[in-house]
Write a structure and sequence with these properties.
This protein has about 550 residues and is α/β, with parallel strands linked by helices. The chain has 20 helices and 16 strands. This is Glucose-6-phosphate isomerase.
């Protein structure tokens, strides 16, 4: 088992090629594929390791839910026929990112509701959703595995005050969670009990992804078919050619072990937003301490890089690997020329193909393939890809900031920004974290800022909206290699929104989350600076970009 599948085009450094080949041989000798499919927890840790045996339900969830596809489709049609015009998903992390990808990649079917995803505590973000929807014709999907996610329950309280009729609410959660009781108390239209043996970031093909898909008329059967095709392609085969998921996971793991740990996505439409979901999957699964002797008991991790603007080949450091997800139906792909240039310059590149004409099937395939490959990468790096040991720290500091009403810290001066960026060279990366309402205009301004930093320093840049990123890349920030340099951007919404039944508002909660995360980063000895954005956050980022340009030039 030494060769890459024909469906993958890859150029890897010779040393990595050799390491991948050795890893695949080791996988065969240790029967890794069969053991993963048998849900053997010892693949990922010593017997009894927490969060392994009870986190492998994603392996066969597509097969188990395929018989329910018709029921899910019927539920979507029932909601459409009831006059629902908008579906609002209230969730964080794995509960929101898969629906967001479905919204962007597949859109709504004819006559089906428009999907909105709310994973923010910014008051303006709350008001933006409120302005776009009518409570009388909206269905709110309250999605949380634990049933206790503070952002999700706060949003529920707000929208339930606007629409107290339980028929306008659906719950997706684990059996026995507090949300089950809440849904029964308020007479929710439906409660979907998810398999509790699936972690949030591995839940795209469970009810957390499929219910929103059905509600907007997406092809649920095609999503499941794509996942089952991918699963079949990841099963043990008596061949010298590695399965897709095994090779992919081994390659990403060995690249990271050889210093190429910045997994940079170049993805063709309509699936470009898949990067937002896989960002959480990879970062939260791999960014942690490895007890494996091969890694000298130090932190490991793969940093996923989504939506970074393209730069000149010379702008990229020697810590990159580029994953090109290409529309095979297009004669000349939008990223083909750049991938060829990067490969010619010696950067590792991996290209996989999909058909835009069958986007739902391909998306289901990509969801499962990424889950399986990430699990394999965890095995390669010697870590448990299913736990998140550092996520709770920021939550605890948030609770403390809420209780103490910790005052916000002042914004960074130029010398602090200069100090933050002065050593931002590979393998360092600059993570920009913005506590502000998401918008296309803000995204564009951030893209310019990222380009200026990357082009001047060759450091990788990432971006995340707060608190979304706390449920995505936050684990890697604290638990992964200490290469991050963190720039926190905070904006006060012009109008605050109360949270019914709480002593704090959305803006107070958002501020506490920002303070809590900043303190957690600094507790880990990580360089972090805070910039307060003015009344107009887009203009403020544009001004910040010019400040940074002057500092790094």
């Amino acid at each position: 088992m030494t060769l890459a599948p024909e469906s993958i085009q890859a150029q890897l450094p010779a040393a990595v090629e050799t390491a991948v080949e050795a890893r695949l041989l080791a996988a065969a000798e240790q029967d890794i594929l069969a053991r993963i499919w048998a849900k053997d927890p010892t693949v990922f840790g010593e017997p009894g390791t927490p969060d392994v045996a009870n986190r492998l339900g994603w392996l066969d969830i597509a097969a188990r839910l395929t018989p329910e596809a018709g029921e899910l489709v019927a539920f979507g049609e029932e909601v459409r026929d009831a006059g629902i015009k908008d579906v609002v998903v209230l969730g964080m992390g794995g509960s929101s990112l898969a629906p967001e990808v479905l919204r962007r990649s597949l859109g709504s079917g004819d006559g089906f509701p428009t999907l909105h995803v709310l994973d923010s505590t910014d008051a303006q973000a709350i008001l933006d959703v409120e302005a776009k929807t009518d409570p009388g014709t909206s269905l709110y999907v309250v999605a949380t595995k634990s049933g206790g996610t503070i952002e999700t329950l706060s949003a529920f309280k707000h929208f339930h005050a606007l629409q107290p009729d339980g028929a306008h609410f659906v719950a997706i959660t684990d059996p026995g969670s507090a949300l089950v009781d809440l849904a029964e108390e308020h007479g929710f239209r439906r409660t979907f009990l998810n398999d509790e043996n699936i972690g949030g970031r591995y839940s795209a093909l469970s009810y957390f992804g499929l219910v929103p898909a059905a509600l907007i008329g997406a092809d649920v059967r095609a999503l499941l078919t794509g996942a089952e095709i991918a699963a079949a392609g990841c099963r043990p085969l008596d061949t010298k050619v590695a399965t897709f998921g095994l090779w992919f996971g081994a390659a990403i793991g060995e690249l990271a072990a050889h210093g190429r740990d910045k997994l940079t996505f170049l993805i063709d439409e309509p699936l470009a937003s898949w990067a937002l979901w896989v960002e959480q999957l990879v970062a939260e699964s791999t960014g942690k301490s490895s007890p494996n002797p091969e890694h000298s008991d130090h932190a490991v991790g793969v940093l996923p890089v989504a939506d970074e603007p393209l730069g000149a080949v010379t702008a990229y450091g020697d810590d990159r690997v580029f994953l090109h997800v290409k529309d095979g139906d297009a004669a000349d792909g939008v990223h083909d020329a750049r991938i060829a240039e990067l490969a010619a310059a010696g950067h590792p590149t991996i290209t996989v193909h999909f058909s835009a004409a069958d986007a739902a099937t391909e998306l289901g395939n990509l969801f499962f393939t990424a889950e399986f490959a990430t699990a394999v990468t965890g095995w390669v790096l010697g870590i448990n890809p299913f736990d998140q040991p550092n996520v709770q720290e920021a939550k605890d500091n948030t609770a403390k900031a809420l209780a103490d009403r910790t005052p916000a810290q002042p914004g960074a001066h130029d010398h602090e920004l200069q100090e933050l960026l002065a050593e931002a060279t590979p393998p360092s990366y600059v993570a920009i974290m913005a506590y502000v309402a998401p918008s296309d205009a803000f995204d564009a301004a951030i893209a310019d800022l990222r380009a200026v930093i990357r082009d001047a320093t060759s450091a990788t840049t990432t971006f995340g909206y707060g608190p979304r990123f706390l449920h995505s890349t936050g684990q890697l920030h604290k638990g992964g290699p200490k290469h991050g340099r963190f720039l926190q951007l905070v904006h006060d919404a012009p109008q605050d929104v109360a949270i019914p039944g709480e002593e704090y508002s959305f803006e107070v909660l958002k501020a506490a989350q920002a303070i809590g995360d900043l303190e957690t980063l600094r507790d880990h000895g990580l360089p972090a600076a805070r910039v307060t954005l003015g009344e107009d956050p887009v203009a403020a980022v544009q001004h910040l970009t010019e400040r940074v340009r002057a500092l790094v030039s």
